[in-house]
Design goal:
CATH superfamily of the largest domain: DNA Cyclobutane Dipyrimidine Photolyase, subunit A, domain 3
Number of strands: 9
Shape: globular
CATH topology of the largest domain: DNA Cyclobutane Dipyrimidine Photolyase, subunit A, domain 3
Largest sheet: 5 strands, parallel
Distance between the termini: 97 Å
Strand content: 5-15%
Strand order of the largest sheet: 3-2-1-4-5
Number of helices: 22
Length: about 550
């Protein structure tokens, strides 16, 4: 009888699958990500707590603690799923303190045939990975970040051929794409209520009695054993970090982030819209969500946040103006900012369109100032790592803009000092929106910013209108010269004088610049002298 054919699987030795080194960074903590779904039993996940990431810009102690605690919880969940994790803790004896050298150690230990990761949130990190690929010859696979609704390639296609990148037009495309707060389908779909954007209804200040209803403080989370372990390691390795740790109460797990989302929708969303631009002493969060940190670490998905807000509108528990405002911040502004970051490339960080070169005042690190608004807004950042968008744009950012601080100094401060700071979001917001440093020529509107169409410069009168800070301040927001003049007002007029020619072609500045032209020559000189004295007093240096 003929012999049966040999089984090839028995004749040849079975080759073990070659391992991949799967890198998960601290802002990619999504257990359902495209990368996590591909992890096999032969792969090793690398997660790294490295001191260099808290030092390349000084990182708030709570920002670092939130990242590291959330990373440890994420790693523990991977381990429970029987996934092999190589976890480098901050105070490990062999920790080299930098991503690049830790990846090199992991390559030596694992001998991978491939390095895989999700697109990082920073050009600097992506370039580092490409250096490793080129130096080692190990293939690098960078997977798309499914957390976002629009990919960088889709944004680039939208931006192609446009003379100006107007967020409002991008936002409308996002509404059509998602169907959020839309009626009908396809090209005939229209926004619920007939208006795309209800921002004009959302600029209310509080009356003299303050917020009504009184805002309910966001849900807080007491530090658990993991958080306390992280804080202990940070005290040993990173004792120099700015900010205070004692009030740490941020969500660091998926379950906590979902609870924080539910708390916002239930207790603050309804009043969020009308008062999203208002400020009040002793109320650091007001009706804001405080979810940006959890979103940026990927503990929450933007779609589930928007869908909760839309559901609240349809259930009658939140007005349209609040639901629309919240949705616009997430699928409009947040996605737009990320698109700009990847579209413009690594060189975007070096832009300084207004040629401002002053140093960041020391009180940005300690809140030691007699300006009541700055003391309140910076003080709460030091205390908690949080400030809502108007405090960032119209107080701390506005001051830096009109006083002449270098835009990179400002963007680095925003990156490090806020718990939601990641380069893709802080750089275009700070350098573009706050500092108006990313100018381009628009055929219709003249020289304008890429992110913001005009500088968001304002005097102390804006802060007086939108807050009660000025009632407790020694400075008079109506005065633009003299000992009692509000520094915001002095710097505002000095900024317009200094930038008169540079901003002349910006159509949105035309009416404002006419006010400069009406100033008497003596008044201009006095404003300039007073501004120079203030710059020296605050350590900003000589006039830029």
């Amino acid at each position: 009888m003929p012999r049966a054919a040999a089984d090839p699987s028995r004749r040849l030795p079975k080759l073990a699958a070659q391992p991949r080194l799967v890198i998960v960074f601290g802002d990619q903590l999504d257990l359902d990500s495209a990368l996590v779904r591909t992890i096999g039993p032969e792969d090793t996940v690398l997660m790294m707590e490295v001191a260099g990431e808290s030092r390349h810009v000084p990182s708030h102690v709570q920002r670092t603690a939130m990242f590291l605690t959330a990373m440890r919880h994420f790693a523990a969940e991977l381990t429970r799923r029987k996934i092999r994790v190589r976890y480098i803790a901050l105070d490990d004896a062999a920790n080299t303190g930098a991503f690049e050298s830790e990846i090199a150690r992991a390559i030596a230990a694992v001998n991978p045939n491939e390095i895989a990761c999700i697109l990082p949130g920073e050009w600097r990190v992506l370039k580092m990975l490409e250096r490793i690929r080129d130096a080692t010859g190990i293939p690098l696979t960078v997977m798309p970040d499914e957390h976002f609704i629009t990919t960088p390639e889709e944004f680039a296609a939208w931006a192609d051929g446009r003379s100006a990148l107007t967020m409002e037009f991008f936002y409308r495309e996002q509404r059509r794409k998602t169907g959020y707060l839309m009626e009908g389908a396809g090209k005939k779909a229209t926004p619920v209520g007939g208006e795309w954007n209800l921002d004009k209804e959302n600029r209310l200040p509080f009356g003299k009695k303050g917020p009504d209803p009184r805002p309910r403080a966001p849900l807080s989370f007491a530090p658990d054993e993991t958080t306390n372990s992280v804080l202990a390691a940070m005290r040993r390795v990173l004792p120099e970090l700015p900010g205070r740790a004692e009030s740490f109460a941020w969500p660091v797990t998926r379950a906590q982030a979902l609870a924080a989302l539910d708390d916002f929708v239930t207790h603050r969303l309804a009043a969020f819209g009308p008062y999203e631009d208002a400020m009040w002493t002793g109320e650091p969060t007001l009706y804001h969500s405080t979810l940006s940190g959890a979103l940026n670490l990927k503990l929450l998905h933007p779609r589930e946040c928007c869908e909760r807000a839309v559901a609240a509108y349809h259930a009658g528990t939140a007005p349209l103006q609040s639901a629309e405002a919240f949705v616009r911040q997430i699928i409009g502004w947040r996605e737009f900012i990320r698109g700009v970051y990847w579209l413009e490339g690594a060189a975007y960080a070096e832009r300084n369109g207004l040629d401002q070169r002053g140093a960041l005042p020391g009180f940005y690190w300690n809140a030691d100032t007699d300006m009541a608004c700055m003391k309140a807004c910076i003080g709460q950042v030091i205390e908690t790592g949080f400030g809502h968008h108007i405090q960032r744009l119209m107080v701390t950012g506005n001051f830096a803009l009109i006083s002449g601080v270098h835009p990179r100094a400002v963007s680095d401060w925003y990156l490090g000092m806020f718990i939601d700071g990641i380069d893709w979001v802080t750089l275009p917001n700070a350098l573009g929106m706050v500092m108006h440093a990313d100018q381009r020529v628009d055929a219709a509107k003249g020289v304008t910013g890429l992110v913001g169409t005009k500088p968001y410069a304002a005097s102390g009168k804006y802060i007086e209108r939108m807050s009660n800070y000025c009632t407790q301040c020694r400075y008079d927001p109506a005065e633009r010269s003299g000992a009692s003049a509000c520094p915001f007002t002095v710097f505002y007029w000095d900024f317009l004088i200094r930038m008169r020619e540079r901003l002349a072609s910006n159509q949105r500045m035309a009416m404002i610049l006419k006010n400069v032209d009406r100033l008497a020559p003596q008044a201009r000189v006095q404003i300039t002298l007073d501004a120079d004295l203030l710059r020296k007093k605050f350590g900003i240096s000589a006039a830029p």
